[in-house]
Specification:
Blueprint: E1 4-12, H1 16-27, E2 33-35, E3 49-50, E4 59-60, H2 61-74, E5 78-80, E6 84-88, E7 94-98, E8 103-111, E9 115-117, H3 123-127, E10 133-134, H4 137-140, E11 148-152, H5 156-165, E12 171-175, H6 185-193, E13 197-200, E14 203-212, E15 215-224, E16 230-234, E17 237-240, E18 244-246, E19 257-258, E20 262-263, E21 277-279, H7 291-312
Parallel strand pairs: 1-2, 1-8, 2-5, 8-21, 10-17, 11-12, 11-17, 12-13
Antiparallel strand pairs: 3-4, 6-7, 7-8, 9-18, 14-15, 15-16, 19-20
Helix pairs in contact: 1-2, 1-7, 5-6
Length: 315
């Protein structure tokens, strides 16, 4: 039988939203407990150079997350390396069960479990992640100035990424397994009019190819879905743009969600459909998905939780 720990504020997740919530909740003297989850540091730990974090012209993603963790610790936020496997939001105090056997009870909960980019699942895709293969054009597009790149996908995400990448790349090849896009028509029209973008219909990505030392992308092999013919396309970057999946498994049956599983919050706040439960970062943000917006929402969630607890007489 594991231990039971009680806290005024339980923060679940350890990306920019979670760590920022930890800083602000600690400063509010709420003595929060932060449970890091399966991927401590979140998506930024899988990136290399980050050039859009205010105050840092360039910083390594993992280094930035270590700094955030240390900041939260310095504010006396208790950080625990555990994974929440079950969360009961039916009554207060809320109850969370950790993979370690520990049970956490809390007067308020901040969910910051993030979202994960969807991937194709190819071994070569995994091999070159962070070394030419990316799922975030706004994060990594800057590194491909004057280069030829490919984008894989056919929905809004793919079209938006392709259009954005024309700001840097000399050519963008959009690889789609059908002969028509699933995006909004206005986006499709913009894409078709852009001279830098060349759609490649009826093709799917088979393999990313590149150099070993240093690790880097040199091209892709694509297969025609009808004929099976393999074609090699030279490129320096591969952007997988088949959407994102919010990590909402813990709460998908207890909190109101929308847009394919993102936790719904009240406008202008981080309040969810259950009073005392707040959501921040990519778990609820299907539009921006940036580290800086996640951090901002983490701040909001901590302040919302502080206000809620004060109203309940729990602070």
């Amino acid at each position: 039988m594991g231990d039971t720990r009680h806290t005024k504020v339980l923060i679940i997740g350890s990306g920019p939203a979670g760590y920022t919530a930890g800083v602000y909740a600690s400063r509010a003297m709420l003595a929060p407990i932060l449970v890091q989850g399966i991927e401590p540091g979140g998506q930024l730990t899988t990136t290399t150079e980050v050039e859009n974090w205010p105050g840092d012209a360039q910083v390594q993603g993992p280094d930035l997350m270590i700094r955030m963790q240390e900041h939260a610790k310095a504010m006396e936020c208790e950080i625990i390396g555990d994974i929440i496997t079950d969360l009961d939001l039916s009554k207060r105090p809320f109850t969370a069960k950790g993979d370690s056997g520990t049970t956490y009870t809390a007067d308020a909960v901040i969910l910051a479990t993030g979202a994960r980019a969807k991937w194709l699942g190819l071994p070569s895709e995994e091999k070159f992640k962070g070394f030419g293969v990316s799922a975030c054009a706004t994060c990594d597009g800057f590194f491909y100035r004057g280069q030829e790149i490919v984008v894989v996908g056919g929905g809004n995400t793919a079209v938006e990424e392709a259009l954005f990448l024309t700001n840097f790349a000399s050519k963008v090849t959009l690889i789609h397994r059908r002969d028509e896009l699933r995006s909004e028509k206005i986006l499709e029209n913009r894409l078709m009019k852009n001279p830098k973008i060349e759609p490649l219909w009826f093709h799917q990505l088979e393999e990313v190819v590149g150099t070993e030392s240093p690790l880097g992308v040199e091209g892709v092999r694509v297969k025609h879905v009808k004929t099976g013919k393999i074609t090699e396309i030279p490129c320096k970057g591969v952007f997988i743009a088949i959407g994102h999946a919010p990590a909402s498994e813990l709460v998908k049956d207890t909190l109101e969600t929308h847009m394919g599983g993102y936790v719904k919050v009240n406008p202008g706040s981080t309040e969810t459909s259950v009073p005392g439960v707040f959501a921040a970062g990519d778990l609820t943000d299907h539009i921006y998905r940036q580290a800086v917006t996640s951090a901002g929402m983490g701040c909001m969630a901590a302040l919302d939780a502080e206000r809620f607890l004060a109203e309940q007489g729990d602070t």
